[in-house]
Amino acid sequence: MSIMTADKIPAALAQPYLDGLGSKQIRFQHCVACARAQTFAHDACQYCGSEQLTWNTSTGRGRVHAVTIVARAPSDLFRALAPYTLVVVEMEEGARVMGHAQPGVRIDDLVNATYFVHQGQTLIRFEK
Ligand SMILES: [Zn+2]
Hints:
The strands form two sheets. This protein has a five-stranded mixed β-barrel. Strands 2-1-3 form a three-stranded antiparallel beta sheet. The chain has 128 residues and is mainly β. The protein contains two helices and eight strands. It has one domain (6-127). The structure holds zinc ion. Residues 31, 33-34, 36, 45, 47-48, 50 line the site of zinc ion.
């Protein structure tokens, strides 16, 4: 499954996801046809191509799939936070979400999404 970031997809498609973060929720697209989940919005299901997609809200619980320590931030927005831990979490619903994480989390840890506001943007922080 490809991992996309919100800045790589059209704003209109990302808006329900971003609105969800503002409400401290992780939203994902659910495919009516094949019942699979994708985090970042597309016009069609990345698995079966169906255009019957609905938006669901995640429980916020998931399992860590990948961990990266970022020592040098890629943008001014994140420079003040470095070094920080980034994770890809597979949510209970099957969608994969990238977010910040509590230092020390490891692959396969069970985590919960919490949220923090940094320079006006609500960001995810996964904690054990
Ligand atoms: Zn599908």
